[in-house]
Design goal:
five-stranded parallel sheet; 179 residues; 25% helix; single chain; alpha/beta
């Protein structure tokens, strides 16, 4: 009798850390997030179709490489959930003050100052960045935060529409809001 035939691999249970995840962002994530609700693709779709929430994509932006003078750089396109606000790089475990201000201002603008508005934070499946961002939003006093852990992977797998997106401009970037 082969012992390997009777081995059943248990699904890894990931517990919420006390703070933010600061490394290995593409890894299994917890099933919970204190202070926020965790939603499925079907729930995210229902919110999206009813236009009942603001979707915040925190997928990081590819860094611009050090290129020779005169080289044209084109960012890699990001496909996300239609109507989303893309605030790249705001899901890291530690944020520079300017990046944290960018997140705060972007979300504040998106919800019109309403801290009870439904905010859906997402990235890709098995990505701690959306977990970190949703946790941060809860810490800022937003009371209706939903974390969509399947992100664009789950959305696309369900055959739902995707659109090419551009990030919200940061202060000082071309097209940025003067605030």
């Amino acid at each position: 009798m082969c012992a390997c035939a009777s081995v059943v691999r248990a699904q890894e249970v990931v517990l919420e850390p006390e703070g933010y995840r600061t490394d290995e962002y593409r890894a299994p994530v917890p099933e919970t997030l204190a202070g926020a609700r965790v939603i499925t693709t079907a729930e995210a779709e229902a919110i999206w179709r009813a236009k009942n929430g603001v979707f915040i994509d925190v997928f990081p932006r590819a860094p611009k490489p050090n290129l020779p003078a005169g080289t044209i750089w084109r960012d890699r396109p990001r496909e996300n959930i239609p109507g989303s606000i893309w605030l790249p790089d705001t899901g890291y475990g530690q944020l520079a003050k300017a990046t944290e201000d960018y997140l705060r201002r972007g979300v504040e603008r998106a919800v019109g100052g309403n801290h009870a508005a439904l905010i859906v934070a997402y990235c890709q499946a098995k990505c701690w960045m959306s977990w970190n961002a949703a946790k941060r939003l809860v810490s800022y006093g937003y009371t209706n935060v939903a974390w969509y852990p399947e992100g664009t992977d789950g959305w696309e797998h369900a055959g739902l529409p995707m659109v090419e997106s551009q990030p919200e401009p940061r202060p000082g970037e071309h097209g940025s809001a003067s605030k």
